[in-house]
Amino acid sequence: MTTPSRAPFYITTPIYYVNDVPHLGHAYTTLVADALARFARQLGRPTRFLTGTDEHGQKIEATATARGISPQQHVDDVAPRFAACWDELGIVLDDFIRTTEPRHKKTVAALWQRIAAKGDLYLASYEGWYCVGCEAFYTESQLDRVDDAYVCTTHKKPVTWVAKEPSYFFAMSKYQDALLAHIEAHPNFILPEQYRNEVLSFVRGGLRDLSVSRTSFSWGIPVPGDPAHVIYVWMDALTNYMSALGDIDGEGYKRWWPAQVHLIGKDILRFHAVYWPCFLLAAGLPLPETILTHGWWAVRGEKISKSLPATRVDPLVVGRELGALCGGDQRLGLDALRYYLMREVPLGNDGDFTYESLLDRFNADLANDLGNLVSRSLTMIRKFGVGAANVPATSALAPVVALTKVRAATIEQARLHFERFEMARGLEAIWRYIAEANRFVDATAPWTMAKQNDPALPEVLAHLAISISSIAALIAAVMPRTAGLMAEFVGQGASLLWPAVALPTTVSFADVRDPTPLFPRLDAAKRAATIASLTPAQDAAAPVAIAQEAASAALTRPIAAARTPAAPAVAAASAPITFDEFGKIELRVGRILEAQAVPKAKKLLQLLVDVGEATPRTIVAGIAERYQPSDLPGKQVIVVANLAPATIRGIRSEGMLLAAGDETIAGLGAIDGDAAPGTRVR
Ligand code: MSP
């Protein structure tokens, strides 16, 4: 048995880009961090949990421009949506940092100056491939090659060439050996193991100096003493973990730095496990204890992301829908989602999110195992429990001995798993205890003991009460609402600290309440109805596939497939369609915001089109022989908005424009009048 740590626990999530609104992918990170923070509090550790928003950089500037508002207006609009989402998800935060706050800007400037004072920043010039999605420069060997384009391995979109511009460089290569030594000496610095190995081989491959300022846009924190440059957005963003504590060397910093855990998704491992530690080494500051890396959630094999609307599961919608199954208690619904996310996939692995597997866990683990145990145990205590019962330290009853053993082992094992961030394994251990407690009810059959006036009945009931309160505490970090209700039913108050292995000497039945149902078992019809009601709710905002052929036509001849319905050749050749069939095609007014050539593709242009949604869509159209990119911004177009997305030359195209002409484009379809983007065209 090991003693739990009582040391302070400072945990952070990535700060989320405000070019998007929260989806299940973001929520997963924040929910896992919330569970780890709750667990640390249960152990009595002083705990600090930070999240926030990443508000600077080229990507945010472009999104604001596309919306026709200032970057500040844009970030002020979107950042509160993240805070509100975390609040509705029941996440208990200690702080929410925004990188546009003065406290943050001050610390970023201070960190820059520390690194500059060390002589590790120098002025040179830079050119290279840049992925705006990642906000990162890449060498060709770090990119995929699709046809003639270099494509970002994460975003699957072509990167852009940044022409030579002056830039400050950070002498990262100087820190290669120190970083390697640190990773080798601290096996928990990067977890799980597979990510540690990935970083080790990257660093062993050699670190290059890093471009850490830009001059070609201005939405960022100015370089101290050289305001023509803004500080590279990742250097700015990573510093949030420290700026949220106040001044470097101040009180907050002294109390909480270094952080115990930076929880991140695998997409941003290099920034956290290479760049950030090198900045800190240069500044002479301690490194965080653990960079804890999780995998990606996908829907039907596609990573949940902004660029794929059909993957964007809204955690609040799922919570509400599951809550409706649990007597309208949204917090219980969210507990079911939290349980599923943390149990289904070991932290670090990728997972496929399906409503089927979610509801399977709901039925098997929550309704059958846990819900059943809670309801039958409490019902029996209410029926047969009188006053209080003594709990002998060593029992003469074999089922009690077996249950006590499992309980003690679970308290220890689950703690060790949670301490090592193995949420799924911790939950597995707890569910073995739940199964044992259900077996205990079957083996002791308290209803028969009552009939036979068996004197051991109070002891058996006491062990049932102990099981309920222990399990409540064990699941509290992952399922806080359920744990709170269980503690209330068993009349135990709401302390929910991590349970002690030692048994109490007495158990009172006086405050045990009739339980309300937690997770009802769903029969096949209810399960199917729930899946059906969740599926359209999620896909409502997303393009719906019309037909597979349409997608593949878009791939090869993007614009030819977008002929106006009135094009004579089509009208003559096509079979008539019904009004309902036509109604399946969602046409909307769009406004082109940006246009650029697709490298090495004569006919294609990549467009950014406002169709009245929170973020504009990327659409690849075969109109380059008719239009120059500069002709298009501001142009009104008609967009086929529910066409299944297709990847064209490595670019995800999210819709299609109507245009006249076949091989030769005669013109774009437009509206004779002023209609706002998003207006339906019929
Ligand atoms: N702003 C940067 C992070 C800066 S931290 C100093 C950023 N932001 S982000 O909005 O793109 O969010 C990235 C994080 O969201 C990922 O690292 C991951 O934690 C989470 N996820 C986004 N999509 C995800 C999935 N599909 N699956 C799991 N997590 C995902 O990168």
How do the helices and strands line up, and which of them pair or pack?
Layout: E1 9-12, E2 16-17, H1 24-42, E3 47-54, H2 58-67, H3 71-88, E4 95-98, H4 102-117, E5 121-131, E6 136-138, E7 144-146, E8 149-151, E9 160-170, H5 176-185, E10 190-191, H6 193-204, E11 210-211, E12 213-214, E13 222-223, E14 226-231, H7 233-238, H8 240-243, H9 251-256, E15 261-265, H10 269-283, E16 290-294, E17 297-299, E18 302-303, H11 315-325, H12 330-344, E19 351-352, H13 355-384, E20 388-390, H14 398-419, H15 423-444, H16 446-451, H17 457-475, H18 480-489, E21 506-508, H19 524-539, H20 548-556, H21 568-573, H22 579-583, E22 587-597, E23 605-610, E24 617-621, E25 636-640, E26 646-648, E27 651-653, E28 656-657, E29 659-661, E30 665-668, E31 680-681
Parallel strand pairs: 1-3, 1-15, 2-3, 3-4, 10-16, 15-16, 17-19
Antiparallel strand pairs: 5-6, 5-9, 7-8, 9-11, 12-14, 13-14, 17-18, 20-21, 22-23, 22-25, 22-31, 23-24, 25-28, 26-27, 29-30
The structure holds 5'-O-[(L-methionyl)-sulphamoyl]adenosine (MSP).
Overview of the structural elements:
42% of the residues lie in helices and 19% in strands. The longest helix is centred in the middle third of the chain and has 30 residues, at 355-384. It has 682 residues and is α+β, with helices and mostly antiparallel strands. The radius of gyration is 29 Å and the shape is globular. The structure holds 5'-O-[(L-methionyl)-sulphamoyl]adenosine. 5'-O-[(L-methionyl)-sulphamoyl]adenosine (MSP) binds at residues 14-17, 25-26, 28-29, 54, 237-238, 240, 264-265, 267-268, 296-297, 303-305. 5'-O-[(L-methionyl)-sulphamoyl]adenosine (MSP) is lined by residues 14-17, 25-26, 28-29, 54, 237-238, 240, 264-265, 267-268, 296-297, 303-305.
